[in-house]
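Design request, tokens follow.
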């Protein structure tokens, strides 16, 4: 008969495994019961329109319509009245110069005000008045949805053959869109005309670690490990807000997207990998900009919970990925 200490140790191990199993079952049950079956795009009446340069309402287009521009730039914005002008000026200087060099190049910028409490919409609308509503459109959401929800609203209202997600802080050098375009082209032939190029800051990791506290570095590594373990493999930086998608890839992924907050990028890439959409990761120039909306500990905690729930909801069948009908 085994000594008493060994028996107690064995009993403790069994109890530990039983508790861990019970906790996992409970979390899975919560994830299943709190999941929505399919992410319908809820639009308030006011969110179905945008104001043209004369202040008149016009109906927003749909991503299901035929593309009318070569490039759509979707800029999610929440309380960005101070940082948005710097980003818009840089982006529009580049886009206007590119159009001068190549008159066949066409673009639009869609600023999605995610229920801001400041003057974000008014600041963005000044650019609409200056450049015209064919180039600049402002969608003002009735209430805050989260970054993922704002991006989704802009993407599904875009007119471009290619759709670029770009953050309002201007942290990524806008002309690096050309790097993403080359990365996208190198993925050809695209299956069903679908491909994604992700901007990446992974090459800057050593420098960023030197500037971060040990606690923030630990959180960063923990998050990256969870992303790799639960959802997405092969992409070192899932969270860079600079991503370029073909119109078909944008429709296929965003139509199935559930997460509306910070972890939406992870689900987006998870969906893309399930659908076998080719993905390129491209190094971009990136600078830390003051005024981030992320609160280090609580934001990482929220994203960690979202990652776990993303995995569990797909595993339990609460969320299902159906082959979205191909675009004509």
């Amino acid at each position: 008969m085994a000594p008493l200490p060994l028996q107690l140790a064995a009993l403790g191990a069994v109890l530990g495994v039983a508790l861990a199993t019970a906790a996992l079952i409970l979390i899975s049950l919560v994830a299943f019961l709190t999941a929505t079956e399919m992410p319908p795009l809820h639009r308030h009446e006011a969110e179905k329109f945008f104001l043209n340069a004369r202040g008149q309402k016009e109906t927003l287009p749909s991503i299901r319509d035929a593309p009318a521009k070569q490039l759509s730039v979707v800029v999610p914005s929440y309380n960005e009245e101070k940082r948005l002008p710097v980003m818009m000026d840089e982006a529009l200087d580049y886009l206007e110069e590119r159009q001068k060099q190549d008159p066949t190049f066409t673009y639009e910028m869609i600023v999605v005000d995610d229920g801001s409490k400041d003057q974000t919409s008014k600041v963005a609308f000044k650019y609409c008045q200056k450049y015209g509503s064919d180039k600049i459109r402002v969608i003002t959401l009735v209430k805050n949805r989260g970054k993922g929800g704002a991006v989704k609203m802009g993407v599904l209202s875009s007119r471009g053959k290619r759709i670029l997600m770009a953050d309002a802080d201007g942290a990524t050098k806008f002309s690096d869109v050309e790097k993403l375009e080359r990365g996208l082209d190198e993925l050809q032939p695209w299956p069903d005309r679908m491909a994604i190029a992700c901007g990446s800051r992974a090459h800057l990791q050593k420098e960023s670690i030197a500037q971060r506290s040990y606690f923030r570095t630990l959180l960063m590594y923990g998050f990256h490990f969870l992303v790799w373990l639960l959802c997405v493999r092969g992409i070192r930086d899932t969270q860079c807000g600079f991503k370029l998608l073909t119109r078909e890839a944008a429709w296929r992924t965003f139509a199935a997207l559930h997460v509306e907050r910070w972890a939406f990028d992870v689900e987006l890439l998870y969906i893309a990998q399930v659908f076998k959409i080719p993905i390129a990761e491209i190094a971009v120039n990136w600078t830390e900009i003051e005024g981030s909306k992320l609160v280090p500990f609580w934001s990482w905690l929220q994203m960690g919970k979202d990652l776990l729930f993303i995995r569990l909801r797909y595993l339990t069948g609460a969320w299902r990925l159906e082959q979205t009908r191909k675009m004509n």
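Comment from the thread starter after seeing the answer: thanks! The first strand starts at residue 49 and ends at 51.
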